[in-house]
């Protein structure tokens, strides 16, 4: 029997009805992978995963990244990044408290950016019985398809310059400042503005305002204006899916074809704790 896949009533997203704590044969995994490529964002409800199971499932998609902010890696499991607003007894955050608060695609600043990210909900913030902290995803394939032919022609062959140290942060961000070593580890990198998906062959817009600081061979003002225009186009309502979290959700998204935004509408003592793995991808083309 094929695995159950229920598409969301949105531009992207689907729920897959599989218990990831149980062994997956190769045929079932291929079904999951195909559904992932088709829907860009997929989620698995009601999971009860150990750290080892989370890592093992993620690793079937490729090599896992160890995040550059080492302070928030899960002890004993550096493949897992803690994303949380919870503080320890010393008053310090135990994880990245501002992860995803601006639109972005994970790890676009690397020569080989992320293929996908897998975020597992351990605690979700609740107020008066309402779950907070939604995540919004943008379908950058649909956004590209909707561009006028003249704009597609204009973008053909252009490369945007990605800079990690320029990524937009919220005001008074609790994230540690980048060290000189971290900046040296993440030099500027140019990627195609129109990226071809390595598995599906679909084309997607691949720029983020803030992190993309220019376009090769283009005056700065013109480049920043075009980047802002494309960024704003990608996040139009018709291209979005908004995920409402439950404890036990594992959500994975395709970083080649989607941007995402975490909604911060909660404060302590409303707690949020997520475990994230990130799969390394190939060089964009």
Rough shape? globular
- The largest beta-sheet arranges its strands as 1-2-3-16-6-18-5-4
Radius of gyration over all CA atoms, rounded: 18 Å
Strand content: 25-35%
Question: Residue-averaged pLDDT, rounded?
Answer: 94
Total helix count?
Answer: 6
**SS-derived structural category:** alpha+beta
Helix content: 10-25%
SS elements, strand count: 18
Order of helix and strand elements from N to C terminus: EEHEHEEEEEEHHEHEEEEHEEEE
Largest sheet: 8 strands, mixed
What are the SSEs and their pairings?
Elements: E1 5-7, E2 14-16, H1 26-39, E3 41-44, H2 51-59, E4 73-74, E5 77-84, E6 114-123, E7 126-127, E8 130-131, E9 135-139, H3 140-145, H4 149-155, E10 159-162, H5 180-185, E11 189-192, E12 194-196, E13 203-205, E14 212-215, H6 220-234, E15 240-243, E16 250-254, E17 258-262, E18 273-280
Parallel strand pairs: 2-3
Antiparallel strand pairs: 1-2, 3-16, 4-5, 5-18, 6-16, 6-18, 7-8, 9-15, 9-17, 10-11, 10-14, 12-13
Task: Write a compact overview of the structure shown.
The protein is globular. The longest helix has 15 residues, at 220-234.
Report on this model:
The chain has 285 residues and is of the alpha+beta class. 20% of the residues lie in helices and 28% in strands. The protein is globular. The model has no long low-confidence stretch (mean pLDDT 94).
């Amino acid at each position: 029997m094929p695995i159950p896949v229920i598409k969301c009533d949105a531009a992207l997203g689907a729920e897959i009805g599989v218990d990831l704590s149980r062994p997956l044969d190769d045929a079932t995994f291929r079904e999951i992978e195909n559904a992932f490529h088709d829907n860009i964002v997929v989620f698995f409800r009601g999971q009860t995963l150990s750290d080892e199971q989370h890592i093992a499932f993620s690793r079937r998609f490729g090599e896992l990244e160890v995040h550059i902010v080492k302070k928030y890696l899960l002890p004993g499991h550096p493949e897992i990044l803690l994303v949380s607003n919870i503080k320890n007894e010393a008053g310090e955050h135990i994880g990245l408290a501002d992860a995803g608060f601006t639109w972005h695609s994970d790890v676009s600043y690397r020569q080989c950016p992320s293929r996908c990210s897998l975020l597992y909900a351990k605690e979700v913030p609740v107020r008066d019985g309402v779950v907070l902290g939604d995540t919004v995803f943008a379908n950058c394939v649909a956004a590209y398809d909707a561009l006028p032919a003249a704009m597609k022609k204009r973008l053909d062959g252009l490369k945007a310059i990605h800079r990690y140290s320029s990524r937009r942060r919220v005001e008074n961000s609790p994230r540690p400042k980048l060290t000189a070593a971290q900046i040296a580890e993440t030099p500027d990198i140019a990627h195609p503005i129109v990226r071809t998906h390595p598995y599906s062959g679909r084309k997607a817009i691949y720029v983020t305002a803030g992190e993309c600081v220019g376009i090769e061979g283009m005056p700065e003002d013109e480049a920043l204006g075009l980047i802002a225009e494309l960024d704003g186009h990608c996040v139009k309502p018709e291209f979005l899916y908004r995920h409402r979290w439950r404890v036990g959700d594992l959500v994975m998204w395709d970083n080649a074809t989607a941007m995402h935004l975490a909604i911060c509408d909660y404060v302590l003592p409303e707690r949020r704790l997520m475990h994230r793995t990130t799969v390394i991808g190939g060089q964009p083309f």
